[in-house]
């Protein structure tokens, strides 16, 4: 993978973590146990430290960066959706930042909280534990439901499993030229979009 030392500091990756070969890690980046870092994520620790705690995941095209002296942290089981930008902020244990959201300097996303997709969390904002924040700029909307909390945990467990699957079976290959007859699909019962989970619970 593209992994770069700068000014004598090089990234640290725990042996049980999976960092995709097309992710980029620079300098003061620390990836903890069982983390997943997806293709095209950029974790650039050339000013401030970037830290992923155990079981965190950072998905495709995410960017993590920060100012000197300000750590950018995703705590244990934090879940960062596709295309999100984290800059000098802290995402607490078991929190989720939705796709294409931006979380700015010294903001804190509280434990078990969710930032909705395409939200902008301004500098120094604190999202309390267990709350939903949404909008641009983000506002505290309400407390999360039990269904939403459970859905988040299920999604993060899927990424824990993806870490194991990737370490065990992901490898470069040549594509097929035609779809083979009876091509199988991946099956993950119960893993559905949140809107589907809500619909099913109301049926």
TrEMBL record:
Which InterPro entries does this chain map to? Hexapep, PaaY, Transf_Hexapept/Carb_Anhydrase, Trimer_LpxA-like_sf
Protein name, as recorded: Phenylacetic acid degradation protein PaaY
Chain's gene name: paaY
């Amino acid at each position: 993978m593209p992994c770069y030392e700068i000014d004598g500091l090089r990234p640290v990756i725990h042996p049980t973590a999976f960092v995709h070969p097309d992710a980029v890690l620079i300098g003061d980046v620390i990836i903890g146990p069982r983390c997943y870092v997806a293709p095209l994520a950029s974790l650039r620790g050339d000013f401030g430290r970037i830290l992923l705690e155990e079981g965190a995941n950072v998905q495709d095209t995410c960017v993590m960066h920060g100012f000197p002296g300000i750590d950018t942290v995703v705590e244990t089981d934090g879940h960062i959706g596709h295309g999100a930008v984290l800059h000098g902020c802290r995402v607490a244990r078991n929190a989720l930042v939705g796709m294409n959201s931006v979380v700015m300097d010294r903001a804190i996303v509280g434990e078990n909280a969710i930032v909705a997709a395409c939200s902008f969390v301004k500098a120094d904002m604190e999202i309390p534990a267990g709350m939903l924040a949404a909008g641009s700029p983000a506002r505290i909307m309400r407390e999360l439901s039990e269904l939403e909390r459970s859905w988040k945990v299920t999604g993060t467990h899927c990424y824990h499993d993806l870490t194991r699957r990737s370490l065990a079976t992901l490898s470069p290959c040549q594509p097929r030229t035609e779809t083979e007859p009876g091509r199988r699909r991946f099956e993950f019962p119960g893993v559905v979009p949140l809107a589907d989970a809500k619909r099913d619970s109301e049926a």
